[in-house]
Amino acid sequence: RPVLRRPIGLVRLRGRRLSPAAARMVEMLREEMAALPG
Q: Which positions of the chain have pLDDT values less than 50?
């Protein structure tokens, strides 16, 4: 997976312990951001 492009929310949540549901939301957000042009 590309690590260069990260959602801003993921940067904020980094270092915190995420629940499975929250981690799943972050993964979905990352996929949506990766699908956007630019």
A: none
